[in-house]
Specification:
By secondary structure, the protein is of the alpha/beta class. It has a domain of about 80 residues: Up-down Bundle (Four Helix Bundle (Hemerythrin (Met), subunit A)), CATH 1.20.120. Helices cover about 40% and strands about 10% of the residues. The protein contains 16 helices and nine strands. A nine-stranded mixed sheet has the order 1-4-3-5-2-6-7-8-9, with helices on both faces. Helix 11 links the parallel strand 3 and strand 4. Helix 6 packs antiparallel against helix 7, helix 7 crosses helix 8 and helix 14 runs parallel beside helix 15. The N and C termini lie far apart (about 50 Å). InterPro entries: AAA+_ATPase, P-loop_NTPase, Signal_recog_particl_SRP54_hlx, SR_rcpt_FtsY, SRP/SRP_N, SRP54_GTPase_dom, SRP54_N_sf. It is found in: Cell membrane; Cytoplasm. Its EC number is 3.6.5.4.
Amino acid sequence: MSTTTLIWIVVLVAALLAVALVAGVALSRRRRISLTEKEPDRPVTKGYRAGGGITFAQPGGPATKPAEPEPAAKPAAAKPAEEPPAKRAEAAAPVVDEPVGEDAPVETPAPVDISVPVDTAAPVEPVVPVEAPEPVRHPVADRTEVDGQPGVGDDASVPRDSVRPGLVDVQLPEESSEIDEIEPTAGRLERLRGRLSRSRSTLGSGLLGLLGAGDLDEDSWTDVEDTLLMADLGAAVTMQVVEALRQQIAARGVRTPEQARTLLREVLVDALHPSMDRSLHALPHDGKPAVLLVVGVNGVGKTTTTGKLARVLIADGRTVLLGAADTFRAAAADQLATWGSRVGARTVRGPEGGDPASVAFDAVKQGVGEGVDTVLVDTAGRLHTKTGLMDELGKVKRVVEKQTKVDEVLLVLDATTGQNGLTQARVFSEVVDVTGIVLTKLDGTAKGGIVFQVQRELGVPVKLVGLGEGADDLAPFEPAAFVDALLGQG
Ligand SMILES: Nc1nc2c(ncn2[C@@H]2O[C@H](COP(=O)(O)OP(=O)(O)OP(=O)(O)O)[C@@H](O)[C@H]2O)c(=O)[nH]1
C-alpha cells in the first residue's frame, strides 16, 4: 500500500470520527431537558413547543433546583396547646390514602426517583394550636347556581349539588398495584407540540393576511382589532398591540409578509411580559415544605392539574403530600387520591362535607411533621360570584398560614371560558392573593388570548398550561413559544 493511499485512509477515518462526534453531541442536547435552566427561545415549526422544563424555586431564591432535596428540619418547639373545640376534634383524624404498593418494593427506572421516604422515627411536631376552623356544612343555597350567572364556563353554570363526573367519567387510568413510571419531561414536551393548532387559524392566518398585504387602510386596521378581540385579547391589550403595530409598521416600512410576521411576533411576545418570574415556588424552605393552593371555579381542571404537578415534582425527586380540601364533591377526593397512588404521593382527606380548611390544615401539619418537600392542596370549585364560598377559600388560606407560609396560590383558568376568566382572576386575587395562573384546556380552544389580559391587568404571570387530559399534559408557559403557536410559525 502506497504512502498516499495510507494518508487518504487516515484522513477519511478522521473525518468520519468528527462527523459521528458532532452528531452525538447534537442528539444528546436535543434530548436533555433541564428542570432548572431554560433553553433559549427557538423558532418552531408547528404548534406550542415549550423549550424547557418547569422551573421550581424557593421564595426569594434563585429559580433553580438545588442539587439535593433539603433534609427535613427539626420541628419547631410546640406552643402551649389550647383546648381544641369539640367539633374540630370530631372532624380531625384525617384519612391518609397511602400510595398503592408503597410498601412493596418498586422498581423504578433511573433517573426518576419516585419513592416517598417517610422517616417514621423522626419526631412528629405536636399540633400547633390554632383557632379552630368553624365546621362548614355547605348550605345548599350557596352551592347551587340559581341566579343565572352567565358564562363562567359550562361547568360553572351546573348546580354544584348536581351529579358530577365521577372517576370513571374523568378517564383516569385504572387503579394499579404499581406506581406509574413517569414520563421524563423531555418526552412530554415533544408530545405537546401542535396542541394549539386550532388557535392558529384564527389569530395567525387572520392577522398575517391583513398585515402582510402592504399599506393598511382604516378598514384593515379595524379588521386587525376585531381579530385580536375575537381571540380574547380584550380591549386594552388590543389597543396596545394595534398601537405598537401601527407605529412600528410606519417606522420600519414593513412591506413583506415575512417582515409582518416578525413584527407581529415581537409585539405579541412583548405584550406577554416575557420577563415575569414564572418559576414555581414549590421547593422547601426554612425547614418546612412549600405549600401550594390550587383554586378556581368548577370544572376548570384543578384536581387534574394538582395530579399532573405532583407527577412533575416526584419525577424531579421531590416528596409530595396531597391535601384533598375539596370536601364538597366526594369523587374529587377519590380522584386526587387516585392520582396520588399512581405517582407515589399520599393524600390527606377529610369527611365528605367537612371543613375544607380543616383538611388543608391537617395536610400541611402532616407535611411539616414528615418533612416532605411540597404539599399540594386541591380546593373545591367555587363560583367567584358567591361571597360565602369565596370567604371559605380565604379561610382555607388563613388557617394554613397559621402553620407555614403559602408559597403559591395557583388560579386555574379554563382557556375556553374566554373573557370571563379575567373576572374570575380579579375576584380570586382579591380573596387569596393569586401568585400564578394555570391555563388549562388550551388544546381545546381557538382562543387563549385571556393570557394577555390576566397578566396585564393583574400582573400575575401565567406559569403553567394544560394541553390535554393526559397525566403528562402539563407544560411551562413560555411567551415566545405560545406566540409562535398562535401565529402558526413555520
Ligand atoms: N382537554 C383538556 N381537558 C382537561 C385539561 N385539564 C383538565 N381537563 C379535564 O377537565 C375536566 C375537569 O377536570 P377536574 O380536574 O375534575 O376539574 P376541577 O376543577 O377539579 O373540578 P371541580 O372539583 O368539580 O371544580 C376533566 O375531564 C379533566 O380531564 C386540559 O388541559 N385539557
